[in-house]
From TrEMBL:
The modification N6-(pyridoxal phosphate)lysine is found at K229. The lineage of its organism: Bacteria, Pseudomonadati, Pseudomonadota, Betaproteobacteria, Burkholderiales. Keywords: Hydrolase, Pyridine nucleotide biosynthesis, Pyridoxal phosphate. Pathway: Cofactor biosynthesis; NAD(+) biosynthesis; quinolinate from L-kynurenine: step 2/3; Amino-acid degradation; L-kynurenine degradation; L-alanine and anthranilate from L-kynurenine: step 1/1. Homodimer. Pfam families: KYNU_C (PF22580). One of its GO terms (molecular function) is kynureninase activity. It comes from Janthinobacterium fluminis. InterPro entries: Kynureninase, PyrdxlP-dep_Trfase, PyrdxlP-dep_Trfase_major, PyrdxlP-dep_Trfase_small. Its EC number is 3.7.1.3. Belongs to the kynureninase family. Its cofactor is pyridoxal 5'-phosphate. This is Kynureninase.
């Protein structure tokens, strides 16, 4: 049985505790939603000021050269790369995750279509429980291509081996599931896909900055992910795309805007792709937002992913144990796997009044979120979450459930 005193002792002994000082968090709030929108690094305020005042205000258009705006997507991509096991020149920060998925899918489909033995393959495999944008983007590309491609949706992760038949061109999976927090074994699944002659795309939205990822060791084909979750890049900050060096020469994507051109300012009338990772770009990037991502990435220089993962698992183990001990009588069901190797950095419990309970938690200063059907999600961000906050969050949850202090017909906001 863990006590509040034990949690305070864990905080006192926590080697990462000081990292919270890097973030601006409102007093009295326990923030368990860094899996959806990371907290603001304190440095981002100053950076935003500099970008707007000095770089935009004073530097004007010259800042594309003098303030490094032109190189920012690839320079920051190089900074992010080690967090996901990517090499230098293999990552660019640009566009949204959805748009990057489109590019990665298009490139993978084309690589297969040009392969002598795989050109006839027409199936794209993903999970029915994928974050919906992944499914929608695949459906969009299939419809637009109109060449007989079909989407095969797995109803559970263990259907994958049986689904890997000889018509599968591409497997596209989210490494850590947005709702359940379940994590795939990336090297094993990538190897299975390859064995079946398919290419493997990973969505790292809930992995980058949350769990250890080694894309190159897994020999994955392409990956995309968000910077506004665990990387703390800011609301709607541009996403990233990884194209390993071995695929770059053959990486072709149809959003061939001028920023993907070999010489954007040569103003030629025909498209020639850039030699390296910049061919994964499209057009001009939102510099004010992109620049702030660096503040989030800088924090990762102070810590290793191994240390973050250790604390993340300790926080989530503690949360699961305390919820089961203190709130066990209230019909909460753990939807996240218990095995460490099978989960990411968030924990989900379902409850038949999950939305209402979450709204009450938020009203009482514990911010998580809700996903249909019935799932309350709690994200653990070891950079700024403490063990005693986990204790406090569970006590708040217990009180709300014990007292029935939630409104079943709570009005819903557009974002849940
Ligand atoms: C797995 C996954 N993919 C993609 C996205 C989002 O994509 P976008 O930033 O394009 O909205 C999310 C969350 O929003 C997600 O959880
Ligand atoms: N981009 C957002 C905008 C508004 C509200 C939430 C999001 C999310 O990122 C949700 C997240 N992908 C999820 O796993 O549910």
């Amino acid at each position: 049985m863990t006590t509040q005193h034990d949690c305070l002792a864990l905080d006192a002994a926590d080697p990462l505790a000081a990292l919270r000082g890097q973030f601006s968090l409102p007093a009295g709030i326990t923030y368990l939603d860094g899996n959806s929108l990371g907290a603001r690094p304190k440095a981002a305020l100053r950076r935003a000021h500099d970008v707007l005042e000095a770089e935009w205000g004073d530097g004007l258009i010259c800042s594309w050269n003098t303030a490094g705006w032109y190189d920012l997507p690839s320079r920051l991509g190089d900074k992010l790369a080690p967090l996901v096991g990517a090499g230098k020149g293999e990552v660019v920060i640009t566009d949204s995750t959805s748009v990057n998925l489109f590019k990665a899918l298009a490139a993978a489909i084309k690589l297969q279509a040009n392969h002598p033995e795989r050109a006839q393959r027409r199936t794209i495999v993903t999970e029915r429980d994928s974050f919906p944008t992944d499914i929608y983007m695949a459906q969009g590309i299939i419809e637009w291509l109109d060449r007989g491609y079909t989407l095969q949706l797995l109803d559970s992760w263990d259907q994958l081996p049986a689904a890997l038949h000889d018509d599968v061109a591409v497997v596209m999976l989210t490494h850590v599931n947005y709702r359940t927090g379940r994590m795939f074994d990336m090297p094993a699944v990538t190897a299975q896909a390859h064995e079946a002659g398919a290419l493997m795309i990973w969505d790292l939205a809930h992995s980058a900055g949350a769990v250890e990822v080694d894309l190159r060791a897994a020999q994955a084909d392409f990956a995309v992910g968000c910077t506004y979750k665990y990387l703390n890049g800011g609301p709607g900050a541009p996403a990233f795309i990884w194209v390993p060096e071995r695929h770059q020469a053959d990486f072709s994507q149809p959003l061939s805007g001028w920023w993907a051109h070999r010489q954007p300012f040569a103003m030629q009338a025909s498209f020639v792709p850039a030699a390296g990772i910049r061919r994964a770009m499209c057009g001009t990037q939102p510099i004010a937002s992109l620049a702030l991502i660096e503040c989030g990435l800088d924090v990762f220089d102070l810590v290793t992913m191994a240390a973050l993962r250790r604390k993340s698992l300790a926080l989530s183990d503690l949360f699961i144990a305390l919820v089961e001990e203190h709130c066990g009588a209230h019909g909460l069901e753990l939807v996240t796997p218990l095995a460490h190797a099978e989960r990411g950095s968030h924990v989900s419990f379902s409850h038949r009044h999950g939305y209402a309970v979450m709204q009450s938690l938020i009203a009482h200063g514990v911010i998580g979120d809700y996903r249909e059907p019935h799932v309350m999600r709690f994200g653990f961000t070891p950079l700024y979450t403490s063990y005693s906050e986990v204790w406090g969050a569970v006590q708040t949850l217990k009180r709300i459930l014990d007292e029935g202090d939630y409104q079943i017909d709570a009005a819903r906001g557009a974002v849940t």
